[in-house]
Structures are given as C-alpha cells and as structure tokens.
TrEMBL record, chains A, B:
Organism per entry: Streptomyces muensis
KW Glycoprotein (keyword) present: no
PANTHER family: HTH-TYPE TRANSCRIPTIONAL REGULATOR YODB, TRANSCRIPTIONAL REGULATOR, MARR FAMILY
Residues forming coiled coils: none
InterPro entries to which the protein is assigned, alphabetical: ArsR-like_HTH, HTH_HxlR, WH-like_DNA-bd_sf, WH_DNA-bd_sf
Stated name of the protein: Helix-turn-helix transcriptional regulator
CDD domains: HTH_ARSR
Keyword terms: DNA-binding, Transcription, Transcription regulation
Domain HTH hxlR-type: 9-107
UniProt-listed Pfam families: HxlR
Keyword Transcription regulation applies: yes
Molecular function via GO: DNA binding
Amino acid sequence: MTDPCLPECGVARFLTLLNGPWATLIVRELLRGPHRFTELRDSLPGISPHTLTNRLRQFERHGIVTRTTYAEIPPRVEYELTPLGEGLRDVLDAMGDWALAVPDPGAEVTV
Amino acid sequence: MTDPCLPECGVARFLTLLNGPWATLIVRELLRGPHRFTELRDSLPGISPHTLTNRLRQFERHGIVTRTTYAEIPPRVEYELTPLGEGLRDVLDAMGDWALAVPDPGAEVTV
DNA sequence: CAGCATCCTTCATGATACTG
DNA sequence: CAGTATCATGAAGGATGCTG
C-alpha cells in the first residue's frame, strides 16, 4: 500500500498506529490498568514475547504508552497508557458495541 | 496467531472482520453511500482491483455489504452497506475523533 | 523478570495481464 | 465495466534459544 491516507482521513491515522491483529488487543488490556510485561503476555493467550515487545515499542514511539523501569531484583517494568492512549477507550467501546450486533460466525438462520 | 479472541471480547471480532489496512478504509468510503466497483477503486488511491475484490467478497460473506448486479450493457454492480455495516459508522467516527488528538507524526514540540 | 537474536511462516497486498 | 489469474513482496507474527 503506497499511501492510503486520504488527506482528511483520521481513520487512516488510527489504522497506521494500531496496525496488526494484536495492537488493539494489547491496548484493550492496558485499558484495565498498568501491566507488567508478563502480565500482558499472560492476559493475551497466544501472543509471543517477540510480538508483544514490538507492539509496545511502537506504542511508545507513538506516545500511546509509557514504559517505566524499576531498578529492582528481579527487574520490574510497567506499561501504562498515556492520556492519548486512554482516549482509545471510546474507540474500543464502539467496537465492542458494534460486535454485539454481529451474528455468531457459525450461526445459521433457520429459514 | 492461534486464537486471540478472548471469550467476551467483541473487539477481537471486529478485528477479525475488518482485518488488513484496506478493510476499514473501504467501509469508510461505503458509508458515504452505495458505490460501483470503479468508483470505489478510484476513491481509494493505490488499491488494486485484486485487493478490492477480496475485501468486498469477505464483507459479503460477513453480511456487512450487499452486492447488486444490474444486467445492463455495460454491466453495473453496486456495493452497499447492510444495516450491520452501517453500524460501523459509530466505530469509524470514534476513530476519527481520536485521531484529532494525535500530534502530527512529523510535528516536534517546541520546548 | 523482561526481554533480544535468529529463522521461518502466513497473509494482505501489489503488479501485470487478460476476459465475459 | 467489473472483474479473474498468476506471480511476487513485505510486514506481522510464531518458534526457539539465550541474556542482563
């Protein structure tokens, strides 16, 4: 894709920052509060540390998430949404509301 | 990704149905009204007919879009959102609202 | 605990050419 | 006009193993 971002299209910007299947799910988990790396990994069944790291780094770069390191033994790192990241709650809520109207994938209508 | 869909997670369902960079942008265009194939292609700079076809077919299968063929010469086909697809307007609006708060990617804060 | 390094797979997409 | 067919690419993701 060369440049799908039509000038006045905020949707495209959202898609650029929350790309990939996991991005939005990570944000969803962080909306419940700050998480340590392992907590996030355990809350997202199937995600690999590789992917989790990549997504979190991208979120940091985009100012959606803050990363706080505590110099302890064992080391502790906490990820937390910035105010900007918190603003995603409305979007995620809208997704959830919409999904309620979606018929179950396997459900067939009895004609 | 094996199964990112946590049981009560409508967000995951949304992501499954609107996957890929183009999906949401196509819906965004259809929210403006019914479109012919060529109209959609021209409204989405950079999209290939291959991709456009694939996305539209998937939307059809998921009940988000209807495809209507008119037996004319030259042939005419119109794509239109179903009520379910129309329901995505709220989600897209939320994305757009959020994006307004995102600092411009290249913009540096003058300290 | 919180990652990083490396290699490999999958999938949406792109490019190009062709048809009813 | 509205696609389909074929081949190729690139980025997200997965698997495994290792480190400060």
